[in-house]
From TrEMBL:
<dbReference type="Pfam" id="PF00343">
    <property type="entry name" value="Phosphorylase"/>
</dbReference>
<keyword id="KW-0963">Cytoplasm</keyword>
<dbReference type="InterPro" id="IPR011833">
    <property type="entry name" value="Glycg_phsphrylas"/>
</dbReference>
<dbReference type="GO" id="GO:0005737">
    <property type="term" value="C:cytoplasm"/>
</dbReference>
<dbReference type="GO" id="GO:0030170">
    <property type="term" value="F:pyridoxal phosphate binding"/>
</dbReference>
<comment type="similarity">
    <text>Belongs to the glycogen phosphorylase family.</text>
</comment>
<comment type="function">
    <text>Phosphorylase is an important allosteric enzyme in carbohydrate metabolism. Enzymes from different sources differ in their regulatory mechanisms and in their natural substrates. However, all known phosphorylases share catalytic and structural properties.</text>
</comment>
<protein>
    <recommendedName>
        <fullName>Alpha-1,4 glucan phosphorylase</fullName>
        <ecNumber>2.4.1.1</ecNumber>
    </recommendedName>
</protein>
<dbReference type="InterPro" id="IPR035090">
    <property type="entry name" value="Pyridoxal_P_attach_site"/>
</dbReference>
<keyword id="KW-0119">Carbohydrate metabolism</keyword>
<comment type="function">
    <text>Allosteric enzyme that catalyzes the rate-limiting step in glycogen catabolism, the phosphorolytic cleavage of glycogen to produce glucose-1-phosphate, and plays a central role in maintaining cellular and organismal glucose homeostasis.</text>
</comment>
<keyword id="KW-0808">Transferase</keyword>
<dbReference type="GO" id="GO:0005980">
    <property type="term" value="P:glycogen catabolic process"/>
</dbReference>
<dbReference type="InterPro" id="IPR000811">
    <property type="entry name" value="Glyco_trans_35"/>
</dbReference>
<keyword id="KW-0663">Pyridoxal phosphate</keyword>
<feature type="modified residue" description="N6-(pyridoxal phosphate)lysine">
    <location>
        <position position="693"/>
    </location>
</feature>
<dbReference type="GO" id="GO:0008184">
    <property type="term" value="F:glycogen phosphorylase activity"/>
</dbReference>
Amino acid sequence: MQTYRDQPHRDHPVAAEEGGISGADWMTVDWSQLNRGDIDVFKRRLYAHLKHRLARSAEEASLHDWYTALAHTTRDLLVETWTDSQRAAASADAKRVCYLSLEFLIGRSLESNLLAVGMMDICHAALAEMGLDFGAIREQEPEAALGNGGLGRLAACFVDSLATLGIPGEGYGIHYHHGMFRQRIEDGRQVEVPENWLTYGNPWEFKRPDVCYPVRYGGRVEMVDDGEGHQSFVWIHAEEVLAIANDLPVPGYGGFGASSIRLWSARASQEFDLQDFNRGDYIGSVMAAMESESLSKVLYPDDSTEQGKVLRFRQEYFFVAASVADILHQFRAQSGADWSLLPEKVAIQLNDTHPTIAIPELMRLLIDEQGLGWDEAWEISRGVFAYTNHTLLPEALECWPVALFERLLPRHLQIIYEINRRFLDQVRAQVPDDADLVRRVSLIDENGGRRVRMAHLAVVGSHCVNGVARIHTDLMKSGLFADFHRLYPDKIVNRTNGITPRRWLNQANRPLARLISRHVDEDWPVNLDLLRALLPLAEDAGFAEEFRRAKTANKERFTSFSGRTLGVWIDPGSLFDVQVKRIHEYKRQLLNVLHVITRYNRLRHGLTAGMVPRTVIFAGKAAPGYAAAKMIIRLIHAVAGVVNGDPRTRDWLRVVFVPNYNVSSAEVIIPAADLSEQISTAGTEASGTGNMKLALNGALTIGTRDGANIEIAEEVGEENLFFFGLTAEEVAACRSGGYDPMAVMHANPELAEVLNMIRGGYFSPGEPEAFRPLVDALLYGGDHYLLLADYAAYVATQGLVDAAWQDAAGWTRSAITTVARMGKFSADLTVLDYARDIWGVKATAPVMQDLGPYR
Ligand SMILES: *Cc1c(COP(=O)(O)O)cnc(C)c1O
């Protein structure tokens, strides 16, 4: 085991750069401002945890031991506020928000928690005096990657905002034993490796074995008649699993509020094990226990595609049943058993359709267990639930087979049928003689194997449905949910996504955050509109120089990271052109590659006029079963091999793929970006949040008029970003109007050359047909995402980017203006909009004073 004395940088704090940014970071701290007493207390607590919790001396301690001790020291600091705010909410009897999400993409917590409680500088000072390097210790923390991408990261950002705004409430999810897989690249191909984030325990969480609910599956439903004409239903279940709570505290910024995420893990239920024991089947009973505990074993790694697996269905009901039971338990303890008050005390937000079974589950509990009548239960239920839609892609819409419900949740199926019967009666009354409408809106899809349409259930069972960017909400109203929009004209609303400025600027980009804090009110992390004070500085040459220096520091950090970990050495002076997100055909990383090859060809042919040196950076995971996405990763590596190895072009063009994209690598890549690639086919990206993170860090956007790009452009000004390509309406017209990709190729010799190179094996000489399917899908497969239709506009716009980059002062002015105008995309404002109109809850944090109209 390595001890901290073995660390070569022990006596050389400057070498802290090795582990990240911390070196440069703490060197700028004004130590004289720190309280000697605080530093000493911090050190004593750290030593105490090392000794009493880990039974290690400072001489023996490994970096990981120091991480654990530091995490516990930090946790101590936030526990007071956490328990205080829980008590305060309970005694105020305030309404609370329960954010149900199958995913929480949290990332690391050490740095964000230290910043939230205001102890970062004290911590750095204490560690420096002890000869320890914060950057290296921070790297010891495994990622809490309990999510795939944007949807899970949104949930984490929202809980951060709940905490900071002092809104009572918390997130509910699953305590996956294995979160998102680790992506390794072997021979240019993605290989998935399980990630063991809990191997050394999780110092942030509190296990609550006493907070435990049974979750049942299977069996049958019996009708019981009480002899006086009143019938009720009893679910005789066949299996039972226990859900145990694990609580992750989430501190609000500035140490005022706090929230938490309650994550359920599965435990075998003894009731059933014992029967097997009594029959003498010891091994059988242990195997059965293992099987039920597999419920919380692993996160499904599919983003935007629905796999329809039985375990996934069980997972959804598992976390929903535990969460609803917990919500009702707390309501009862607080407010008694007058269930009609439930909507005044609780708002439940369904993050996508994954938790939609919560609707029939609440109905079941109210009717079967509390004895309420249908109408009363339905009114309560609709008052409580609201649903967020995240995608219009048909392959992502959940539809569970009726047969699966029959087998695992028979009582819920009955309730869904009854919801549907009453709903369709109402539709027939509202719009007579339209059998096709009834068929379209039914909760049951009768085409080829009956299925429950979870999105329809969510819409019918919620009082409010929201999209996540204006264009997405408009498309919901005109497309996917057009019938529902006609039936319930006020139900569908927009709530454009947001990001937390704490993690995505204050923490991830310390050089820029420190610069901003020198020039604008230091409350900007809780009131992002304050960044508008930077606008006049966009014209200030001195400020522009400092802004550029901050960007350069981030680019150098990325360069040393990529050099050290990937062995790729790049020029921090080149334009960093960044596309980081899940690999998906609709996100069109392949279009980016077509541009890279075009640029490479121009360079080979000596056509360098107007061109600037670029480093094109990719990162992202493909779903393990998504062949096309995996082939795109392989193509990126193949192109990188050729381009980076060509002495004629290597000073002008480099391609880097950063493996294992996650929150931590996003925190290194995004602050270093000059150009943000947001190039989805218009009408396919619901909102995007990567686009917001990159713009907030001073990258200019090249993008389509899709998702939140449109609203970003409205804020920062179209003159400060690069739009190109078909609009959503043009995409629809193109697809229905005889689009001919082959003709597009023949009309564009540059494009034809690029496609022929890929198809002909230029990048895969040992295996000439390796990438042929990608090109064939474009030329012969209909090019569903219209890469070829947008190619010429994309390449031309990339030329405008080069020209803009050559005007360094103009580029910096646009970047500063972009940062200054991103206030609208703070998750705080998004969450306040949900709070005011959808949840009917109040924020209590003092920071509210600064938020003007939202106060
Ligand atoms: C923000 C984020 C995403 C979402 O990125 P999009 O560009 O909006 O798709 C995905 N993964 C991680 C790790 C993120 O931080």
